[in-house]
């Protein structure tokens, strides 16, 4: 099933709203056609200076005369048969049969007329002007009612579209939270954001169009179609021979439109990508005076989108004239055929019977009114068409993400977390991003419970990658990480991650208050516990002294109103509040000044006692926190030992410390 089909199935779940859309559309359509029907009494009665009862009376008179004439004609034809040569007999008999059939129809009309006349005489106005007043009142009330149902219809349709969009957006967000981290680096934030905003809006608009215009307009057409068929279904068939041409032409455009719409959405994702990057690196752009280069990059993305949009505009521009020309062809065909029949009081066209009895001016006007009543919805359907193509392209993109199956999920039969575990082991761990070259190669490392391990190594050697495998941000491609022999992949993700606290260099904060940011470490923590954690992380002083509303100060998007060091201290308080069994510190104190560093060191020293800690640092001074130091290089472990041992025997370690470790130890 296509993406849009699935969105529609979701919408169909709101049965009440769907029923509301259909019922109100039906009323709009019936009232639309019945309002147009008012032209019939207007032309056949009022314009001839008659009231409806008078008109019915004169119609009855005409029909009686017709009957008498036909009977007379049949007698004459019967006489002709007696004197004609045998080869003329079939033609004459056919004429007699036709005349009999026509008399039958006229008799039926006469009976109907006789039945309806007393009712019309009793209920309908008796003068032409009163009839006109009645027709006008009928049209006015009909239009009022039609618009009332239209309003109801628009509200139902909008609600259905927005509810579907709302539900899909929530699913999409849930899916974003479940997706593997690798998806984010592969697809890019801009693209994922665009799908959740623009694309989903298009899906909502598509659902609204499908249950709104795409139901209302065809129903209006069907109502007019029925009215025109009532006048003469044969004439109607003749006039809609052009319809299949329109169908195939529009279908050919559909595919190109969907493709163009999909490309446009992709280009829009590119713009989102560029914008998010620019906004998050605006300082860098200014500092390195990259404005013109960035402008050029943005120009390329915007130009690509502009070109796609122009392509869509060209296709769209084609749809409307195409349907309009075919519509006009249809009406003109009807005008020629109908005009011929009425002006000549004929019932046949090219030997084909079009109506049982000659059509009146009122009939013909009604027929045209119905055709015109069909052409307006047909024109609107051309717009519907593009919106549905857009929605179809957008839904494919949304469902592409919704259908992604994350690989890092809970195992089918999770093992229980070893409560009194004693060792955490990286066994022959190998890993490469996206199945690419190995960033880590056969890493073996055993950490005892409560041990503090520092990991050092040159940039890009795989330190952060190694630690990101423990909370299963990524899964190892070879080897395993085991806690007391239990593979972390056999544990429930929640059970594993709830025991780990992470403080990283970026120290991400949410755009909310300081207190709430700290409480993310342990949702539900009391204010006292939050403040105690802040005191331990040496964050309380700046929070109380420098922030206007203390713990209730909003930190700005990503914590932008705080300095790097302040953000790190809040992130540290968050980890302290979590009170994790395993603490991961990835350059957690890199932005803290020398004065604060000493204080934080003391805090960390106290906090990490008896707590399994894995810390990455480039600061030799931080090494004093560690029981053992692991030196990594090019994805492998170069050496392990105490800082003193390594200083004595490991060349790389000495280079990394470049004397700093000794100085600070
Ligand atoms: N999301 C990612 N996708 C692809 N490759 C990545 C990704 N993250 C890191 N890498 C690559 O993996 C290698 C190891 O990166 P990692 O961040 O683990 O190094 P590191 O030792 O922590 O470096 P640093 O000291 O600079 O923080 C690098 O070559 C890097 O280019």
UniProtKB/TrEMBL annotation:
Specify the protein's topology with respect to the membrane: Multi-pass membrane protein
- Report the PROSITE patterns cross-referenced here: ABC_TM1F (PS50929), ABC_TRANSPORTER_1 (PS00211), ABC_TRANSPORTER_2 (PS50893)
Taking every annotated instance into account, which residue ranges of this chain make up the domain ABC transporter? Answer: 424-659
Ordered alphabetically, the record's keywords are: ATP-binding, Cell membrane, Membrane, Nucleotide-binding, Transmembrane, Transmembrane helix, Transport
* One cellular-component annotation, GO: plasma membrane
Q: Which SMART domains match?
A: AAA
Q: Which Pfam families match?
A: ABC_membrane, ABC_tran
Q: Which residues form the ABC transmembrane type-1 domain?
A: 115-390
Q: What's a Gene Ontology MF term here?
A: ABC-type oligopeptide transporter activity
Name the source's superkingdom. Bacteria
List the subcellular locations.
Cell membrane
Q: Where are the transmembrane segments?
A: 12-33, 235-254, 318-343
PANTHER family found in the cross-reference section? ATP-BINDING CASSETTE SUB-FAMILY B MEMBER 10, MITOCHONDRIAL, ATP-DEPENDENT PERMEASE MDL1, MITOCHONDRIAL
Task: Report what the protein is called.
Answer: Putative ABC transporter ATP-binding protein
**What organism is recorded for this protein?**
Pseudobythopirellula maris
Lineage from the top down? Bacteria, Pseudomonadati, Planctomycetota, Planctomycetia, Pirellulales
């Amino acid at each position: 099933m296509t993406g849009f089909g699935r969105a529609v199935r979701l919408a169909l779940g709101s049965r009440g709203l769907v029923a509301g859309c259909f019922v109100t559309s039906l009323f709009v359509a019936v009232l639309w056609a019945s309002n147009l029907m008012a032209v019939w009494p207007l032309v056949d009665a009022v314009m001839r200076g008659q009231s409806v009862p008078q008109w019915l009376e004169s119609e009855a008179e005409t029909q009686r005369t017709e009957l008498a004439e036909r009977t007379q004609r049949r007698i004459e034809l019967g006489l002709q048969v007696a004197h004609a040569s045998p080869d003329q007999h079939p033609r004459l008999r056919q004429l007699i049969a036709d005349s009999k059939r026509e008399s039958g129809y006229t008799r039926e009309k006469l009976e109907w007329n006789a039945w309806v006349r007393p009712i019309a005489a009793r209920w309908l106005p008796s003068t032409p002007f009163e009839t006109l007043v009645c027709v006008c009142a009928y049209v006015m009330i009909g239009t009022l009612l039609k618009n009332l149902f239209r309003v109801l219809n628009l509200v139902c349709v909008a609600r259905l579209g927005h509810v579907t969009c709302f539900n899909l957006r929530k699913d999409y967000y849930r899916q974003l939270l479940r997706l593997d981290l690798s998806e984010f680096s592969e697809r890019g934030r801009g693209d994922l954001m665009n799908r959740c905003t623009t694309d989903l809006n298009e899906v909502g608009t598509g659902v609204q169009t499908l249950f709104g215009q795409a139901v209302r307009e065809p129903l209006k057409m069907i109502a007019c179609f029925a009215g025109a068929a009532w006048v003469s279904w044969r004439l109607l068939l003749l006039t809609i021979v052009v319809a299949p041409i329109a169908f195939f032409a529009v279908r050919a455009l559909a595919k190109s439109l969907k493709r163009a719409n999909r490309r446009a959405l992709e280009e829009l994702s590119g713009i989102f990508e560029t914008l998010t990057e620019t906004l998050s690196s605006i300082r860098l752009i200014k500092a390195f005076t990259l404005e013109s280069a960035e402008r050029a990059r943005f120009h390329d993305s915007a130009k690509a989108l502009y070109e796609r949009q122009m392509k869509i505009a060209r296709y769209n521009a084609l749809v409307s004239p195409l349907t309009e020309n075919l519509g006009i062809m249809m009406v003109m065909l009807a005008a020629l055929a109908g005009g011929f029949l009425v002006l000549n009081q004929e019932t046949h066209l090219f030997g084909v019977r079009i109506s049982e009895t000659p059509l009146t001016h009122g009939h013909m006007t009604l027929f045209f009114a119905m055709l015109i009543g069909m052409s307006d919805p047909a024109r609107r359907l051309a717009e519907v068409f593009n919106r549905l193509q857009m929605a179809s392209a957008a839904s494919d993109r949304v469902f592409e993400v919704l259908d992604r199956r994350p690989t890092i999920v809970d195992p089918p039969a999770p093992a229980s977390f070893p409560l009194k575990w004693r060792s955490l082991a990286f066994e022959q761990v190998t890993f490469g991003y996206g199945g690419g070259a190995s960033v880590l190669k056969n890493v073996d490392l055993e950490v005892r419970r409560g041990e503090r391990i520092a990991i050092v190594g040159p940039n890009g050697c795989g330190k952060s990658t190694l630690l990101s495998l423990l909370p299963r941000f990524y899964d190892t491609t070879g080897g395993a990480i085991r806690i007391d022999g239990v593979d972390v992949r056999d544990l429930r993700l929640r059970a594993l991650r709830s025991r780990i606290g992470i403080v990283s260099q970026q120290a991400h904060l949410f755009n909310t208050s300081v207190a709430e940011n700290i409480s993310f470490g342990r949702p539900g923590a009391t204010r006292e516990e939050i403040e105690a954690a802040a005191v331990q992380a040496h964050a309380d002083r700046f929070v109380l002294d420098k922030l206007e509303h203390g713990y209730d100060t909003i930190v700005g998007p990503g914590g932008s109103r705080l300095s790097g060091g302040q953000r790190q201290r809040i992130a540290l308080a968050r980890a302290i509040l979590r009170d994790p069994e395993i603490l991961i510190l990835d350059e957690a104190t890199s932005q803290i000044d020398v004065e604060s560093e000493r204080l934080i060191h003391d805090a960390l020293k106290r906090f990490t006692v008896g707590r399994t800690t894995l810390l990455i640092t480039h600061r030799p001074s931080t090494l004093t926190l560690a029981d053992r130091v692991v030196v990594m290089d090019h994805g492998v472990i170069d050496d392990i030992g105490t800082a003193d041992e390594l200083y004595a025997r490991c060349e790389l370690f000495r280079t990394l410390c470049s004397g700093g470790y000794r100085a600070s130890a």
